[in-house]
Every structure is written in structure tokens, then in C-alpha cells.
Amino acid sequence: MAEKAKSLRVGVIRARKIEARTLQVGRQVSVGREALVRRVHRLSVTVRELRHALRALRHEVHAERRELERQIEELRRRVARLEREVVSDLPPNPALEALFAGQIGQTVSVSTASGTLTGTVVVAGTNAVELRENTGDILIIPYSKITSTQ
Amino acid sequence: MIQGVNAMTFQTLLAEFIGSSVEVEVPGNMIDGTLTAVRTGLVQVAETPVIYSPQVTVSIPTVNIEYVRILVG
Questions:
Q1: Staple A119 to which of A53, A131, B18, B70, CB 3.0 to 4.6 Å?
Q2: Rounded Cα–Cα distance for residues A130 and B67 (Å)
Q3: Site from A73, A87, A89, A122 to mutate, B interface, most B CB atoms within 10 angstroms
Q4: pLDDT tens digits for B36-55?
């Protein structure tokens, strides 16, 4: 039995019974220089890979952010358009809007229940068209009142 | 069709001419005077007064307007 306050260092203990007030069992691992170098090398490779992955992730996040900003801008435009449609009590007519937008600067004749009006297309709005007559007067005609145009 | 934020409506087109002389065509009638206000669903025109008579402001529901002529020339 070991004397009190003295440590016993042995490779193997074979015993049926060990009596002790405090029993400490530890594991001492000695690492050689080469093993350390290998471990450091592995760690530096891992760090390099992580840096690479981080750079790729940042790039991906940046691209994602730009796409989200583009979508937000698109949604803002749609909301603005819907707000205008809600505020206006005249219905939009995308087909007439596109038709007049393609005729900006051209002279057109527009028929309504009150008669036929002729002028140069100035603005193709969402629910009305603005024409300039030969006299210089301006006409604003809601699409909903147009019966035909040529 | 997606429009930009600057797309114009009947109201915004007309609002540019507040203070101008206008003719507003409604079924069976033409109202002429000075455009004083453009509101949601409503356009107001101060009718050209006949001599010595008080000026009358006419409110016209937007949905009834056939067209508006702004007298510039």
C-alpha cells in the first residue's frame, strides 16, 4: 500500500480490492511534435475551408438581399398602383392604356356617347387619356366612356 | 401591366388644370366654368356667372363625366 501523501505512478495495477479515501485516476497523453504539426495542419485546412465557405455564404446572402430589394421595389410599385385605383373611382383599362401609349404623338379619333373627339395623344393614363385638339385645348376622356377609337 | 409610380389617373391628369377654364360634358348637358377642385369621385366647377348673378359651384360625380375639355387655346 502506498504511503500517505506520496503518489504512485505505475503502468498496470492488478488488485482484487483497492481501499482509499480518495482515488484519482487520470490519463496522461503525451503528444509528439509530428502529431502536433499534423493537427495544426488539419486545423489550418479546416479554417481555410471555413473561410472559403463563409465568403461563398456572404456572396449568396448579398445576391439574395439584392433580389429581395428588387422584389420589394416591385411590390411598392404594385401597391402604389392599387392605391391609385382604389382612390380613383374610374376603372383602369390596361388594353386601352397600352393602345394609347403606343399612339403618343399621333392623332386619334375617340368616340363617346356625346360625340367624336379628335386630337393628338399626350398622356395614356391608367383610366383616362389626354388629347390635345388642333385648337390647343386639352381633352381628358375616361376610358369607361370611350365607345370606339381609331 | 405593371406601371411605374408616376402612372396618371383621370384625377391626377385633371388636377393639373385646377384654375383653368373647362367644359365638362355629362349626359345631356355641358357645364362650363373654372375647375376649382378634383376630389375622389367628384369634380367641382365654378360656373361662369351670368352678369350680376352669384357664382355657383357645381359638383359633378366623376363617373358621370363623358370628357373634360380644358380651354387653353
A1: A131
A2: 10
A3: A89
A4: 999 888 999 999 777 777 88
Distance CA B62, CA B14 (A): 11
Residue among B2, B11, B65 minimizing CB distance to A77: B2
Write the pLDDT tens digit of every residue in A69-92. Answer: 999 999 998 888 777 666 667 888
| Cβ count within 10 A of residue B26 | 15
In this structure, what DSSP letter does residue A52 have? H
Task: Write down the pLDDT at residue B38.
Answer: 92
Largest CA-CA distance found in chain B, in angstroms, rounded: 52
Extended beta strands in chain A, E state? 107-112, 115-124, 128-132, 138-142, 146-149
Amino acid making up residue A85: E
Instruction: Tally DSSP H helices, then E strands, for chain A.
Output: 2, 5
pTM of the predicted protein model: 0.61
Strands B21-26 and A128-132, how do they pair?
Answer: unpaired
Strand order in the sheet with B67-70: A146-149, A107-112, A115-124, A128-132, A138-142, B67-70, B21-26, B29-39, B42-47, B57-61
Q: Tell me the ipTM for this assembly.
A: 0.89
- CB proximity B2 to A under 8 Å: yes
Nearest C-alpha of chain A: how many angstroms from B10?
5
What's the Cα-to-Cα distance from A36 to each of A32, A44, A47, A49, B28, rounded to whole Å?
6, 12, 16, 20, 99
